[in-house]
Predict the structure.
Amino acid sequence: MTNNTNKKPYVRKQAVILIHGIGDQRPMDTLRRFVDSVLGNPRDPDRPAYWSKPDTLSESFELRRFQTVNRRVKTHFYEFYWAHEIQDSKLSDLWNWLKVLLRRRWSDVPQSVRKLWLTTWVTVGLSLACLIVITMLTLFDSWRPDFWPSKMPALPFTVPLLLLSIQAVILAYVGDAARYLSPQPRNIGCRHAIRSAGVKLLTRLHESGEYDRIVVVGHSLGSVIGYDILRHTWHKFNTQHGKPTKVCHKALDRAEGFAVELVKSAASAESKKSDLNKARYTYRNCQRSIWLEQRYQCLPWLVTDFITLGSPLAHAELLMANNASDFEQKKCQRELPLCPPVMEGNPPSRFSYSMDYQDNNGAKRTIRVLHHAACFAVTRWTNLYYPSSWLLKGDFIGGPLAGVFGQGVLDVPVSTKARRGFFSHNFYWQMDSRDVSSDDAPIKQLRKALDLDCRDLLTGALDNVSKQLQQDFVLHWQSPDLSTMVKQKTPFGSKLPGQSSKVQTRSESPEIIKKQGVRQPEKTDAPDA
């Protein structure tokens, strides 16, 4: 390979999609606060941390694309804005949704949400009782106590004002959840519109050819939407592959083996928490290896991470199914993807299957592809949540997900001193000076999960793949000119993400780089193409 030191090293790009939660959201407000906190730079007009550029993928003039400035790995931040798709929510929508939830039998209510379920019952009951008492005391003189006014002119105004208050305050927030989470005929249109727009945005990011890595972040109801977008987009990509003359399955075999061990550890009552955590982190490293191996075989999927913040998916059994058995059935039938994915075989040991193809020489070969619900074989899932105490402290909307969607989900409990920890649902990326020294501060854990500098992207991943892939990756990653690699038709074929040049894995040692005869990339602030 020619070593041209005059050429600048290839600067890779990644995209971050933020999906906002419930409420009366304005376009770009959430994304701007998110980016300001994540980048950690003050709003200095002379030294901006990012540029605001036109968003050509979303088909909306209200949205912009934020592009980082002077960073080793270029990052483009997008907001998936969906609030305008849910309009004209009515009290009947909320009531129909609550009826379905409140009519559950006590045994069908998940343990994690029983306090909230009881509180809702008490609130609805007290509200109806107060309304009935006020009406009866006003209409019937014989029932009226001495302190009650003989005439109640406020009654005609009390009920409408009460209903307007409920509509203005509650529907602005709960109405979004009631419409999206309830598959009633009236809600099908907005549910379809939101999911279609999300799938279209994610597909366009893949097809643009501009990015090497995509991260999806969902807050509150946005995490449910993000989960739906991923599962409805993945099946468009999972069977796509190139025509390699040599097929690599080392990382896939290793990951499937560790997935079996992870499931066994979670099911065993004798397993220690430390052993379960060790198995979980081992599987997460394997997810990186599978992604790299699948990219080597031209799988176009670029989503490396799914990050949920205060996610209602913690209560998915209540919100996405009729009861516990219905929820388990949907997971077993692969309608709801798990992490690790549902495995098949007897005994269950694989989340992949064989597919035949002909290589460029006409030889018949077999490759293993991931099944239609195995997106979390290559995409890591990190969940941040505030532990809740009696619905007041922390965040009762979110919660741990490993027990709901699989032990491969990394649950990260966080804490904040803002508001003394009360009602923390909207404090997952807000900066608070009192949280600076805390290791479990949400902004610290969020930055770690995002890994915008790609310092941990491939740490340990290359140890689990074939030597040929390691060598090809080192050659590709160190290439000073991407077009050279494309013209030579290397196995990668197109851009692949790598980690920061300041960080080396064991497979990226100076000895290997020296042996391959290529130079290490230097830091550059090269502008976008």
Q: What stands out?
A: The first strand starts at residue 13 and ends at 19. The first helix runs from residue 29 to 39.
